Give the backbone structure.
Amino acid sequence: MYVPIISLYEVYKKFITIGDNEKANIAVAIMQNAAVIGINPQLAVLAAQLGKQHRLPMADSIIYATAILCNAELYTQDKHFEGLDRVHYFSK
């Protein structure tokens, strides 16, 4: 299992925004059990290309590029990813 570093940011921010620091810390601790993938030049360039091609916001393009480079499947409830290859989209 892989976790893009930007996903740690997004999850942590979501929980602290609603005032749940305990859940924020627990979620990030669990996520760090996976291989946390940082941003490097190859990933940045691919993310930019995918972002342009699929009209994805920056964070989403980094997440999608991470899945592509890691040859992984992406499971999400984020509608931005619906219909993309390697993506398993589940509506909320």
In short: The chain has a mean pLDDT of 96. Strands lie at 2-4, 35-37, 74-76, 87-89. Residues 2-89 form one domain.
